[in-house]
C-alpha cells in the first residue's frame, strides 16, 4: 500500500480516494445525462474505485455505470453490493440474505455491469433472518464458481467480521465512519490489523463538517473546504481507509478528488483528532 493506493485483497490495486455512485440519478433523461458525465469525469480525474449496489434503483445505478464507462479501463474497479431485496405485500426494501436471492442478484449485477466476474462483491448488510454462515458461504461458492473475485462486508461488528473470516477471506469492510462519526473505530482497527480495506460510507457526515468551527479553522489555514479537510483526515487516519464520497455535481466531484492533494500538518491532525473527544 502507498499514500495514494491500496491493494484490496492483497492484489487489486486502487487509488484510495474513490467515488460512491449512490447519488447519481438515473432519470429523467436530462439528469441521467449529467450523471453519465459525472461518472466519466470521475474516471478522467483518476478514480479507480467506484461503489454501487443492487439497492440503488434495483440495479438501475449499475446499468447507469455500464452505460457511462463500459468498456471499462483496465485499472477501474466497480464494486457492487447485494443482500437487500423488495419483498412482502408492500414490496418494501428489506434485508434478504437467502442464498437464492444472493445468487440471483449477483447474476443480475454481472449482466447489468456487463462483466463476467465481479472483482469485489460486498454483502450490503447481514440479514438477521438468515444464518451468517449461509450468507457468507454462498458468496464463497460464487467466488469458487468464478463469478466473484473478492468478498466484502458492510455495516458489521468486529465479532461479525471475525465470524465471517472463519468462513472465507474478507477483502473489504464498508461501515459508516467519518471525522465526526467514529462509532466503528474498533472495526477500523480490526481491518487495519488484518490489512482489510475499510471503505467508509457517509465519509463527510453530509453537512455536519461545514458546521464545525474546528474543521472550518483548519480549512481556512489550508485554503480548502471543510469537506476536503474531512476527506484528507480520513486518508491520513489509516492506510487501509478508502473513502468513497458521492455527489451528482461536477464541481463537488472535482473538489472531493482534490482532497487527495491536501497535506495535514501534525498540529492540524492533532486538532482534528481531538474532535472525537468532544461530547
Automatic annotation (TrEMBL):
A single MF term (Gene Ontology): oxidoreductase activity
Gene3D superfamilies per UniProt: NADP-dependent oxidoreductase domain (3.20.20.100)
Listed GO CC annotations: cytoplasm
Domain of life the protein comes from: Bacteria
NADP-dependent oxidoreductase domain location: 16-276
Keyword Zinc: no
Protein name per its UniProtKB record: Aldo/keto reductase
Lineage per the UniProt record: Bacteria, Bacillati, Actinomycetota, Actinomycetes, Kitasatosporales
Amino acid at each position: 500500500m502507498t499514500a495514494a493506493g491500496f491493494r484490496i485483497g492483497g492484489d487489486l490495486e486502487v487509488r484510495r480516494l474513490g467515488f460512491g455512485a449512490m447519488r447519481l440519478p438515473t432519470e429523467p433523461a436530462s439528469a441521467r445525462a449529467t450523471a453519465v458525465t459525472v461518472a466519466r469525469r470521475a474516471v478522467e480525474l483518476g478514480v479507480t474505485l467506484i461503489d454501487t449496489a443492487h439497492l440503488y434503483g434495483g440495479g438501475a445505478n449499475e446499468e447507469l455505470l455500464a452505460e457511462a464507462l463500459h468498456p471499462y479501463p483496465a485499472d477501474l474497479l466497480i464494486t457492487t453490493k447485494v443482500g437487500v431485496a423488495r419483498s412482502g405485500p408492500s414490496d418494501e426494501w428489506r434485508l434478504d440474505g437467502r442464498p437464492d436471492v444472493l445468487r440471483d442478484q449477483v447474476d443480475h449485477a454481472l449482466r447489468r455491469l456487463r462483466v463476467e466476474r465481479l472483482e469485489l462483491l460486498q454483502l450490503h448488510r447481514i440479514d438477521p433472518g438468515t444464518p451468517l454462515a449461509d450468507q457468507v458461504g454462498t458468496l464463497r461458492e460464487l467466488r469458487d464458481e468464478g463469478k466473484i473475485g473478492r468478498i466484502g462486508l458492510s455495516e458489521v461488528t468486529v465479532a461479525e467480521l471475525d465470524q465471517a473470516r472463519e468462513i472465507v477471506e474478507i477483502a473489504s469492510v464498508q461501515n459508516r465512519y467519518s471525522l465526526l462519526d467514529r462509532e466503528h473505530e474498533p472495526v477500523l482497527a480490526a481491518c487495519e490489523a488484518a490489512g482489510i480495506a475499510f471503505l467508509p460510507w457517509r465519509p463527510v457526515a453530509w453537512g455536519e463538517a461545514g458546521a464545525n468551527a474546528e474543521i472550518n479553522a483548519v480549512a481556512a489555514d489550508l485554503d480548502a473546504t471543510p469537506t476536503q479537510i474531512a476527506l484528507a483526515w480520513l486518508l491520513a487516519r489509516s492506510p487501509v481507509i478508502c473513502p468513497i464520497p458521492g455527489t451528482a455535481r461536477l464541481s463537488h466531484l472535482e473538489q472531493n478528488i482534490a482532497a487527495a492533494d491536501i497535506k495535514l500538518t501534525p498540529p492540524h491532525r492533532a486538532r482534528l483528532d481531538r474532535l472525537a473527544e468532544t461530547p
